[in-house]
Write a structure and sequence with these properties.
The protein is 37% helix and 12% strand. It contains 10 helices and 7 strands. The strands form 2 sheets. A 5-stranded mixed sheet has the order 3-4-5-6-7. The protein has a two-stranded parallel sheet with strand order 1-2. Helix 1 runs parallel beside helix 2. The structure holds adenosine monophosphate and manganese (II) ion (3 copies). One manganese (II) ion (MN) binds next to loops.
Length: 290
């Protein structure tokens, strides 16, 4: 396999039931393979408990694999996601950093349920729990699934818009990891840190500049340019940012579920040819099938 090709069908961002996806790591591996993915990473939120399973499943299918995670960070009072790729999944500092980041999710979920109860939606904590595949990782996505099940809303994006974003009844602000810690945990575990879906944050120009500069200062190396969360215009814009900040470019669907995600595994446009793909710096970290 020619790993450095910019046209490689790499999908380096998706979620399993170990965080807020609906498929098991093995099912994702099979789906990635069937969709023509040539290099894959499972990037569960704040959790690497699925890494050995994903890597073994990819190996059995002849699919090259990079370890992955997506760390929740609070930067300038905004939640930012940092993807880590190619780290040692047995690194204890990374594992304990992620465990600390996960801590507090249950408490937050109870508060979210209280907020929803105030507007007449009862039993949301227990309802969300039915969808949780990892007791330490109850997320807004699980609440969204419960509100669709009970027909409060017709789909998960409507739930987020009406109930789960800032200013809405089920929103509870939360302090996640620091940018410095997230980047350091990934880097010291031998991996490479990437700013996930930058178009989602709606920062002012100054705050965005600060995010990219501080990210680089801490040792961050990449940015997602082509992702399921970006429009074509967003990809053009962040291709420019990648060049300005001399960052490697990443590509990933952010696939969560066959019934919820509008971009399937591997079903993305290629990276712009003038960018340096993140996988060119990760060749030695790719787990090649046996
Ligand atoms: P949490 O980490 O609990 O705050 O949940 C964040 C997750 O919610 C993200 O990783 C997405 O999977 C999901 N999410 C956030 N915003 C939306 C949205 N507008 N529509 C659908 N899912 C969303
Ligand atoms: Mn998610
Ligand atoms: Mn994200
Ligand atoms: Mn994601």
């Amino acid at each position: 396999m020619n790993i450095p090709s910019p046209a490689l069908n790499a999908d380096l961002h998706c979620h399993s039931a170990v965080s807020d996806g609906t498929l098991q790591p093995e099912e994702l591996a099979a789906r990635a393979k069937a969709n023509g993915v040539q290099l894959w990473a499972l990037t569960d939120h704040d959790e690497i408990g699925g890494q050995h399973r994903a890597r073994a499943a990819a190996s059995a299918l002849g699919l090259p694999y990079l370890t992955g995670t997506e760390i929740s960070v609070t930067f300038a009072d905004v939640t930012v996601h940092i993807v880590g790729l190619g780290f040692d999944p047995d690194d204890t500092a990374l594992q304990s950093g992620l465990a600390a980041t996960r801590g507090g999710r249950r408490e937050r979920a109870r508060e979210m349920a209280q907020g929803l109860a105030k507007v007449g939606i009862e039993g949301a904590f227990e309802g969300a729990l039915k969808y949780v595949g990892n007791a330490e990782l109850i997320s807004r996505t699980h609440f969204a699934r419960f509100l669709v099940e009970t027909r409060v809303c017709t789909d998960t994006s409507e739930v987020f818009r009406k109930y789960l974003v800032e200013g809405k009844p089920g929103y509870v602000p939360h302090r996640w990891a620091s940018l410095r810690n997230a980047v350091t945990w990934i880097t010291e575990a031998g991996g490479l840190a990437v700013i996930a879906h930058p178009a989602r944050y709606k920062f002012s120009a100054n705050a965005e500049y600060a995010l990219f500069s501080e990210f680089k200062t801490h040792g961050g190396r990449g940015v997602e340019v082509v992702t399921g969360s970006h429009s074509a215009a967003d990809a053009v814009r962040y291709a420019q940012t990648a060049l300005e900040f001399d960052l490697l470019a990443s590509r990933g669907s952010d696939f969560h579920s066959p019934s919820e995600s509008h971009v399937d595994l591997g079903a993305l446009p290629p990276l712009p040819a003038d960018l340096q793909p993140v996988w060119t710096a990760l060749e030695a970290r790719v787990h090649q099938p046996a």
